[in-house]
Amino acid sequence: MTKVLFVVSELAPLIKTGGLADVAGALPTALAEYGDEVRTLLPGYRAVMGKLGKTKVIEKYDDLFGGPAKLLACKMAGLDLLIIDAPHLYDRDGGIYLDTTGTDWADNPQRFAALSYVGAMIAETGAGGWTPDVVHGHDWQAGLTPEYLRARAVQVPFVFTIHNIAFHGNTDAGKLVALKLDGDRFTRDHFEFWGQISALKAGLMGATKITTVSRTYAEELLTPEFGIGMDGVLRDRQSDLVGIVNGIDEDIWNPATDPYITPYTTPAKKAANKKALREIFGLGPSDGPLCVLVSRLTEQKGIDLLLAALPELLSRGGQLALLGSGDPKLEVALLAAAAEHENVSVKIGYDEALSHQMMAGGDVILVPSRFEPCGLTQLYGLRYGTLPLVALTGGLADTVINASPAALASGVATGIQFFPITTQALGNAFARLADLYNDPKTWKTMQRNAMKQDVGWKASAADYHAIYTSLTETHQ
Ligand SMILES: Nc1ncnc2c1ncn2[C@@H]1O[C@H](COP(=O)(O)OP(=O)(O)O[C@H]2O[C@H](CO)[C@@H](O)[C@H](O)[C@H]2O)[C@@H](O)[C@H]1O
Fold first, then answer.
1. What residues make up the domain containing 407?
2. Is residue 124 within 8 Å of 152, Cβ to Cβ?
3. Is 180 known as a binding-site position?
4. Which residue's alpha carbon is nearest to atom 12 within ligand 1?
5. What percent of the chain lies above the pLDDT cut of 70?
6. Is the ipTM here above 0.90?
7. How many domains does the chain fold into?
């Protein structure tokens, strides 16, 4: 049994902007099956504080990066939480990373340095008598943790998981003092990155073990194209880098019990959900596949490729129902496409219930990402018999079995992959999709295969458990 402190900036079901929250929310329960005890340290954003039940104050800090703060302990949704109640950092309108105008909060470096700093303090002195054997940080927001552990001479292993290397958490060198960092370590070997402080680099350099969320992404990260400036750092640390594919919460994402949908256990019974979904999106009947997409709208997600390839889908009778929010330019372009084509419908926003209805009612889940460390929506799609059409990259390469002639002949295909990641290849994939969809026997076989895939956390939690065990053994 290993006591593990998660240090993370979002956590489902309390606060979520993307897949990081899902992983942070589901993995602790899966690890408990192996006897590991996870407590999760999370900033007390306004939205979080409003949802907490009974809390216990276990620590008080006079000055946590500019103001007084408390450490609260509570239980929620089966999780043991440690919440940093620091109003000067987290109690405000707007998003958790962005202000009301969509700009990064100017004090994000301090806000997440505080998260990492409290993580290190807990590792040193414990929280209410509980001291972790391992600290497990996620993404750049937890990246400074090993610097603070080192400053306190705390010898605890630090596992660092990269969910998305595109975010570096960089800030200017003038903040060294404000962030309580050791100026002597502002070098290329530690956390200096092209003249800036990089929280991500600090985490990568200081981690005892680095994980990322699929095997293919672990390999891709070593290349300049995917490493986004950190490939050199990662090549240096390659022997400590491992890819562990994400799972999904099989209770929340279960078509047989999902409270947001008409429940089903066989693909044939998706029909009621498809009808309902078309009504929700104002789409009429059509002969082609109903494609759905649920995503943050960013460059990463290949939405521009989809827009350019849409004619191929629509010319074969396909439809698109899309839910997302993010880049205003993409939002405008999507709404324009919806206005132009009757078989395209777009909802801008974030809607958990609707995302479930889309998984249940769609024929196909689209993930045309330029890069995708793991991706979760294709996993939801598999579980719901909604076949993934995905770019061949990262976790999308590892979790979908492409409908190649060989895979179809042996009856194992679960979706469609396209490569290179271009408009033309996506357009060709839409043509393949239409052919497969028009072959009901093959389509049903693929749906049944998809629904049988193991997309839960059990196997991957075992891999994390093995890492914790090996690290605590070597540190004893
Ligand atoms: N408008 C909306 N309404 C409702 N729900 C919405 C939504 N927009 C997104 N979501 C939900 O947010 C999650 C997104 O997770 P993903 O893993 O697909 O991508 P993300 O890039 O956020 O995560 C990063 O971290 C995760 C976790 O490691 C990696 O899988 C991934 O590759 C990496 O980019 C899904 O649960 C999805 O349903």
1. 267-452
2. yes
3. no
4. 18
5. 99
6. yes
7. 2
Domain assignment present for residue 178? The answer is: yes
Asked if residue 192 is part of any domain, the answer here is yes
pTM to 2 decimals? 0.96
Q: What is the mean pLDDT of residues 459-465?
A: 98
198 shares a domain with 53: yes
Atom of ligand 1 nearest to the CA of 395: 32
Q: Element (H or E) spanning 85, and its range?
A: strand 79-85
Dist. CA 222 → ligand 1 center (Å): 23
Say if residue 230 is in the same domain as residue 329. no
Helix segments in 69-164, DSSP class H: 87-90, 108-125, 145-151
User: For the chain, how long is the longest CA-to-CA vector?
Assistant: 67
What three-state secondary structure class fits 206? Answer: helix
Instruction: Note whether 309 and 272 are same-domain residues.
Output: yes
373 CB under 6 A from ligand 1? yes
The answer to whether the beta carbons of residues 364 and 386 sit under 8 Å apart is yes
Angle at 330 between CA 329 and CA 331, to 5 degrees: 90
Average pLDDT, the chain: 97
Q: Are residues 234 and 108 in the same domain?
A: yes
Query: Given pLDDT bands bounded at 50, 70 and 90, which one contains residue 475?
Result: low
As a three-state string, the secondary structure of 225-292 is: HHHCCCHHHHHHCHHHEEECCCCCCCCCCCCCCCCCCCCCCCHHHHHHHHHHHHHHHCCCCCCCCEEE
In a shared domain, residues 94 and 213: yes
pLDDT more than 90, % of the chain: 97
H or E element in which residue 25 lies: helix 19-32
Q: How confident is the model at residue 146 (pLDDT cuts 50, 70, 90)?
A: very high
**Cα 67 to ligand 1 centroid, rounded to whole Å:** 33
User: Is residue 259 assigned to a domain?
Assistant: no
445 and 462 part of one domain: no
Instruction: Assess whether 91 and 212 both reside in one domain.
Output: yes
Our measurement of the distance from residue 214's CA atom to the centroid of its chain's CA atoms, rounded to an integer in Å, reads 12
In terms of domains, do 464 and 419 share one? no
Residue-wise pLDDT for 194-231, tens only, equals: 999 999 999 999 999 999 999 999 999 999 999 999 99
Atom of ligand 1 nearest to the CA of 12: 36
What confidence tier does 102 reach under pLDDT thresholds 50, 70, 90? confident
Please report whether residue 255 resides in a domain: no
We report the CATH number of the domain holding residue 224 as 3.40.50.2000
Distance 19 CA to ligand 1 centre (A): 4
Q: Which of 98-102, 306-310, 462-466 has the lowest mean pLDDT?
A: 98-102
- Provide the 8-state DSSP code for 104: B
Separation of CA 159 and ligand 1 centre (Å): 22
| Lookup: tokens for 417 | 């992959």
Q: Using CB atoms within 10 Å of the CB of residue 332, give its burial: 0 to 12 exposed, 13 to 18 middle, 19+ buried.
A: exposed
